[in-house]
Amino acid sequence: MFIEKIEKEALLKPLQTVVGIVERKQTMPILSNILIEKEIGKIRFTSTDLEIQITTTIETDTDADNNTAITVGGKKMQEILRILPDQSKVSIEVKENKVQIKSNKSRFNLQSLPAQDFPKLSHQLENAKKITLSQSVLKKLLSSVQFAMAQQDVRYYLNGVLFVIEDNQFRAVATDGHRLAYNAITIAENSEKLEIIIPRKAITELSKLLSDGNEEIEIEFSGQQLKATFSGIELVTKLIEGKFPDYQRVIPNYSNHLSINRTLVQQALQRAAILSNEKFRGVRFVLTEKNLCIISSNSEQEEAQVEIETDYHGEAIDIGFNVNYLLDGLNSIHTEMAIFSFGNPNSSILITSPDDLDFRYVVMPMRI
After folding, report:
1. When comparing pLDDT for 15 and 63, which is higher?
2. Angle (deg, nearest 10), helices 200-209 and 135-143
3. SS (H, E, C) 195-264
4. Is the pLDDT of residue 7 over 80?
5. What 8-state DSSP symbol labels residue 21?
6. Which residues pair with 129 in a beta bridge?
7. Which of 314, 256, 259 is nearest to 288 (CA)?
8. What does pTM read for this prediction?
9. What pLDDT, in 10s, does the model give residues 115-143?
């Protein structure tokens, strides 16, 4: 018997932690599996896609005469455990190249592949820099920029988030070439400048796994890898090689500012978006003395026009933007007010928050 009568929830929680990076269809079948290793008093779960590896360990009162390991389909095992009644007791038995999961009168026989063939990532963390911070602080930092990451861009260095560690500042930057999000936090450690690009998938998984509490996370950076250790989880990821764009040149310094209620402008944009072109999702910002008019139209010659009273006294502006990009930026601000800063009708727009002074979100204009 590999595991005997353990609570379903005790198995399901670590399984859900590691299974997020597992794909059902893989060029290497074993990458659809997770590795389960049993030692005296603990069980370790590991998954990998050869770029990222996630490991978590649970403590058990099961004894093991010798250390044993199996691999089993991660998604299938998750579905089986999820569908079992709450408080179910689960046993796992290994028979040749099969793994049998038993609970009450249910039996599930799954294919297994040799544990020794499981391709664990080797650690490449020589001379790594190390920082420690609160999980909730890192989660908030990532959520304020990650929506601006590119998806499968041929400029591979855009498919992730840039981390910059310099002095006692930790900056995060993401861009897809059409918009750029930037934020920074202060950290306890004082470091020489280091820039690394974390892949999109690793950022997404890390964000999901981080808690909203003050528990700490330890991050180690080297030129090849990042390792994050927190809440009994170890996430290791390869880094993206390449030169990230000069984000400091992209962030403008404008003199025309509009301070506006965030919810009010979100709702106006959502209304205007209904009749925007489905492909281009463009809206016009027409800003005049004490008035903002948001206009959209589509190929069927339908038009929406939403007006908001403002306290704006700057130059008149008529400029077009992708409405989804604006909404993404506003969704990442969690305060009552947002500040829009403008240049000329051919310039980008800068969105900031009066309560998060380091946050910057730049959206390039579009011709409408």
Report:
1. 15
2. 130
3. EEEEEHHHHHHHHHHCCCCCCEEEEEECCCEEEEEECCEEEEEECECCCCCCHHHHCCCCCEEEEEEHHH
4. yes
5. G
6. 221
7. 314
8. 0.93
9. 999 999 998 998 889 999 999 999 999 99
Indicate whether 63 pLDDT > 80: no
> What sign has the CA pseudo-torsion 10, 12, 14, 17?
negative
| Per-residue pLDDT at 64 | 59
Could you tell me the two tokens for 153?
Answer: 């861009």
Q: Please, what's the largest Cα pairwise distance for the chain?
A: 79
Burial 127-158 (b: 16+ CB within 10 A, else e): ebeebebbbebbbbbbbbbbbbbbeeeeeebb
- Cβ neighbours of residue 244 closer than 8 Å, sequence gap 6 or more: 157, 158, 162, 173, 195, 197
148, 328 Cβ separation under 8 angstroms:
yes
Under a CB-based contact definition with an 8 Å cutoff, are residues 177 and 363 in contact? no
Residue 148 DSSP label:
G
| The pLDDT value given to residue 259 | 96
